[in-house]
Amino acid sequence: MKAHRAIALTIALTVPATAVAAAKTKFWNLTAETITDLRLAPVGTEKFGPNLTAADKDGTVDHDENLTVVGVTSGHYDVRFVDAKGRRCTVPNVEVRQGETFSLDENELPAACRK
């Protein structure tokens, strides 16, 4: 009986850890336009990574669409995007947590970026 309890406890402790590891980091576009280019850089640097929208089936992230983000670890990033109307914007110090969703909201963009 003790062996069964030990197995049950091991499973109970392992399943949540596995579920967290399997969770996908996502970007949620809450801007007013379709995003055609989305890049992240460590805060305060100009070391922007690759265009994350390339992973989407149509290469863009529509308004209210989620994009699975691969290869990004938890941390704070400056986020640079270009939208379908040509607007270019850098949003500083965005928190990204692995396995969670981060977003850019039109109403929370820096004043220079707002429509």
Question: Would you mind describing this structure in some detail?
Answer:
The chain has 115 residues and is α+β, with helices and mostly antiparallel strands. The chain has a single domain (24-113), classed as Immunoglobulin-like (Sandwich). The chain has one helix spanning 2-22; strands spanning 25-30, 35-42, 66-69, 75-83, 88-96, 101-105. The protein has a three-stranded mixed beta sheet with strand order 3-1-6, with no helix packed on it. The chain has a three-stranded antiparallel beta sheet with strand order 2-4-5, with no helix packed on it. The radius of gyration is 18 Å and the shape is globular.
Write out key terms for the chains shown.
115 residues; alpha+beta; Immunoglobulin-like; three-stranded mixed beta sheet; 1 helix
Topology:
Blueprint: H1 2-22, E1 25-30, E2 35-42, E3 66-69, E4 75-83, E5 88-96, E6 101-105
Parallel strand pairs: 1-6
Antiparallel strand pairs: 1-3, 2-4, 4-5
In short:
The protein is α+β, with helices and mostly antiparallel strands and 115 residues long. The protein is built from 1 helix and 6 strands; from the N terminus they run H-E-E-E-E-E-E. The termini are far apart.
* Integer count of domains: 1
What's the count of strands?
Answer: 6
What is the strand content? Answer: 35-45%
Count of DSSP-assigned helices: 1
Q: What percentage of residues falls in helices of 4 or more residues?
A: 10-25%
Order of helices and strands: HEEEEEE
The residue ranges in which pLDDT falls below 50 over 5 or more consecutive positions are: none
Describe the main β-sheet briefly.
3 strands, mixed
Terminal Cα span: 66 Å
Question: What structural category do the secondary elements indicate?
Answer: alpha+beta
Task: Identify the overall geometry.
Answer: globular
Q: What is the C-level CATH assignment? A: Mainly Beta
Widest β-sheet, arrangement of strands: 3-1-6
